[in-house]
Write a structure and sequence with these properties.
alpha+beta, Umud Fragment, subunit A, 8-stranded antiparallel beta sheet, 4-stranded antiparallel beta sheet, 26% helix, elongated
Length: 203
């Protein structure tokens, strides 16, 4: 083979190698794009329609939740089921819907809630004489200050913070309409030493 033929042969091999490398790069880019698109198609609906992250700010829910706790919020359950007494919910603050609050549901729609003598008393159709709510999640030194009676409408909820001495809640600004509820806290992934699946209180 002449020098010229040998050079042409080398050029051909080099061209084929370059073309093959280019194809591999394009395939890699295409596969990466597909993975990203598929991931976004899965993650975005979950992020915006099923689960929301939430950082606890302040001390109003201590000792159950502390400042800086990272929570995941279940946004879909309340589309099929009504919120229950004892659920910890995230909602838009009725007096400024740009703010989000975390509190515990105490009173349900159409109930009457009375706060007096450091007790919460619930009146409803099942117990028209009323019953005092036993709240095991409160710390021993807690006090439920206030003297009030509130009748809830058919879509309203009465909410309180677990840290009653440092909580702005329904004692101050009234009930929370269901339309303002974002969802319920269902998982605390951070901090790691307090990681837990979150369940509503039982009474």
């Amino acid at each position: 083979m002449s020098d010229e033929e040998n050079q042409n042969f080398n050029n051909l091999n080099s061209s084929n190698g370059s073309s093959s490398t280019r194809r591999e790069v394009l395939v890699f880019i295409w596969e990466t794009v597909k993975i990203v698109v598929i991931s976004l198609a899965i993650i975005l609906p979950i992020r915006y329609y099923l689960v929301q992250p939430f950082f606890v700010k302040g001390a109003s829910m201590e000792p159950s939740f502390e400042d800086g706790d990272y929570l995941l919020i279940d946004e879909i359950s309340y589309r099929f089921n009504r919120p229950e007494r004892g659920d910890v919910i995230i909602f838009r603050y009725p007096q400024d819907t740009s703010q989000f609050f975390i509190k515990r549901i105490i009173g349900l729609p159409e109930e009457t809630v009375e706060v007096k003598n450091n007790k919460v008393i619930i009146y409803n159709k099942k117990t028209p004489q009323g019953f005092s709510l036993g709240e095991k999640y409160l710390s021993q030194n807690q006090q439920t200050l206030g003297d009030m009676v509130l009748k809830l409408d058919d879509n309203d909820y009465f909410v309180l913070g677990d840290n009653r001495l440092q909580s702005s809640d329904s004692r101050r600004w009234g009930a929370v309409n269901k339309a303002l509820i974002v969802g319920r806290a269902f998982l605390r992934p951070w901090p790691v030493n307090r990681m837990a699946k979150l369940n509503g209180a039982s009474y």
